[in-house]
Amino acid sequence: MSEIRKVAVIGAGVMGAGIAAHVANAGVEVLLLDIVPEGATNRNIIAETAVEKLLRADPAAFMSKRAARLVTAGNIDDHLADLATCDWIVEAVVERLDIKQALYARIDAARRPGSAVSSNTSTIPLADLTAGLSDAFRRDFLITHFFNPPRYMRLLEVVAGPQSDPATVARVEKFADVKLGKTVVTCKDTPGFIANRLGTYWMQAAVVQAFDLGLKVEEADAIMGRPFGIPKTGVFGLLDLVGLDLMPHVQGSLARALPKSDPFHALLRDVPLLREMIATGYTGRKGKGGFYRLNRDAGGKVKEAIDLATGAYRPQEKAAPSELEDGGGKDIAALMAGDGPAGRYAWSVMGRTLAYAARL
321 pLDDT exceeds 70? Predict the structure, then answer.
């Protein structure tokens, strides 16, 4: 089994750049490529800017500045031929099948035969991704779905197709396990795989119910966070971390792949505030802010949260719903049995999500 000594990541967005950083943390050389912006004088500006942001990221994406020096920024017009020097090529571009397939055709023409190619897609089935592509490409292709931030999230979902070469899949899985420290979970080629099929449903249910019940974002996150073993980001903090603009793509891709009878469709509704935030650049941590933001005034930095009813920012509050206080945040039964908004919210969101999981 040949070793993976050099990796290419195509797509220098939040996920692609994070994957590149974590591969570099393993001491492996990485080529990070993206498109050339129209009219750009620096043709590598997108990838170079991504690396600069990674160096300032909190939590840190790189383990050291030495690791950062292993990442070479480039673009897909001038440097695609360099894929021939790579043992594993990771695609992490926007969740659009047409864009991915057009890129795969270019990758197939430039790569070295036998090099592994994988997609970081979170929703698109492998069978759709490889439709119409060469047999050689299909043999070397798989899905490797990382989670954000790649350095800290241990889960890696791997999907192989009927034509995927078992040796290629094993080589990537071994690298992910030994070098990247990932817990590899093999998934079937179904829409959303495991984590996103359930996670997207949970997230949409949590957002919709927070609006319907008139909760504050801090309250919703306190309820959906630690009591259920979920990071303290809860749902709205998680959306800020992932990027609000990513969610319509993920939801749309999943909705198109699922039958109309799937309960996921019942949760899809237009959220005007969310649409307006995305349109005005409030896309989360990578943008001007999200459901939370760090603002500056005469007194210094102020943590703010958005009011779901008005869309205006206000000082962030420490949430302590009565049901959480009564159970100390550790008694899920007490939380879900509560008669107040917190109890109704917990029961509605988690009850629906567990019922959805049980029917899959």
Answer: no
* CA torsion, ordered 161, 165, 167, 172, to nearest 10 deg: -50
DSSP secondary-structure letter at 227?
A: G
How many alpha carbons fall within 13 Å on the CB side of residue 241?
18
Domain positions in the chain are 6-186, 195-359
Other Cβ atoms less than 10 A from the Cβ of 62: the count is 21
What is the pLDDT at residue 337? Answer: 82
Higher per-residue pLDDT: 171 or 246? 171
Beta pairing, strands 313-315 & 300-306? antiparallel
Distance CA 343, CA 247 (A): 26
pLDDT of residue 322: 62
pTM of structure: 0.78
For the 6-186 domain, the top CATH level (class) is alpha beta
Are 234 and 224 in contact by the 8 Å Cβ rule? The answer is yes
Distance CA 277, CA 290 (A): 7
Average pLDDT over residues 137-160: 97
pLDDT band for position 1 (cuts 50, 70, 90): very low
Q: Is 75 exposed, middle or buried (0-12, 13-18, 19+ CB in 10 A)?
A: buried
What residues have CB less than 8 Å from 216, skipping those under 6 apart? 305, 307, 308, 317, 319
Alpha-carbon gap, residue 159 to 191, rounded angstroms = 11
The string over 311-342, giving b where at least 16 C-beta atoms fall within 10 Å of a residue's C-beta and e elsewhere, is eebeebeebebebbebbebeeeebbbebeebb
Question: How many C-beta atoms surround the C-beta of residue 269 within 10 A?
Answer: 9
Question: Class of 195-359 per CATH?
Answer: mainly alpha
Taking the C-alpha atoms of residue 319 and residue 113, their distance in angstroms, rounded to an integer, is 56
What distance in Å separates the CA atoms of residue 275 and residue 271, rounded to the nearest whole number? Answer: 6
pLDDT at 323: 56
Strand 300-306: give its sheet, edge to edge.
292-297, 300-306, 313-315
SS3 9: strand
